[in-house]
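Exam revision sheet. Question 4 asks you to relate a sequence to its structure. Input first:
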Amino acid sequence: MDKAPLTEHLGELRNRIVVSLVVVGVAFGICFNYSEYIFELLISPLHYTLEFSIDNPYLSFVPSNKPGINLVFLAPAEALWMHMKIAFISALVISSPLIFFEIWRFIAPGLLDKEKRYALPFIITTSFLFLIGALFCFIVVLPFAMNFLLNYKTENLQPMISVEKYMDFCLKFILAFGAIFELPVILVFLTRMGIVTHEFLAKNRKYAVLIAFVVAAVLTPTPDAFNQTLMAVPIIILFEAGIWASRIFNKKKKTG
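Answer key, structure tokens:
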């Protein structure tokens, strides 16, 4: 394990941050050029909803009950800022594998040689889980949430949604789910470092359920219980997956 002065660690951290910012900046320029196409993709939950069926196809997108909803902007610069926000969040998602790689390069010098072999699995797993979380939110959660919220006792109401409010709702949800799907990796890391054990996690899962709903209440962009439940349930499932993965890796560590 390498030992270096604090100034060297700070310099290394600065280099990793600069590289990450450059990557995000390049990705931002590319995404901003295609922000209109990304925008059209992001508004699809307004017009389509995911339908479950016991017959083939089991999952299908069907037109929403309110397909004529059009977004509006309420300030002259709102549309421009919306495109910039879309480009920035898209750049973060696209750049996430390289950002995770830079994080690993920063922490790797403090690890043992046998621990450094987890670099590639760490990058692949964290990137994959983040993208899966974002995709799960976009394909499953957002269409379901929008269909419920826009049709719940709104027969005598006409929705007029600003593009800023809608994009904030969607992008916060997508980023939150991407981050939440990293939970199994975090739990495996904590058990590998000896901070907690999988037995401790399993024994205290009832507290994890409570924490899941608290975290969902903080991360969801709306205060309603419906959207909080949509996030809390995957957190609980991912927590159980983290316990299972921790148990497997702990056995490998003992036999290795």
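Marking note for examiners. The CA atoms of residues 69 and 245 lie 43 Å apart.
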